[in-house]
Specification:
about 100 residues, alpha+beta, 4-stranded antiparallel β-sheet, 4 helices, about 30% helix
Amino acid sequence: MESVYDIIRKPIITEKSVALMEQNKYTFVVNKRATKTQIKHAVEKIFGVKVVSVATMNMKGKLRTMGRTQGYRPDWKKAIVKLADGDRIEILEGM
């Protein structure tokens, strides 16, 4: 992977992920081939925070129907990143 921005795609902003922010955990869509170590270094470099742990999940694409045709959304990978006490990602706090 060339840069840290290839690893971290975008944040996930849902009711559940906003509730996790109170526990100092942030949720991101990441590259499917990214490892926990790569995700940790990318978040630390992009946001300037200290990462304590990373939990990853491979999410299966859902079945979608368009008229008579059926297909699947693409598979993706989700990472929940726990930050050290006192560290915050201010950009995501206002969501």
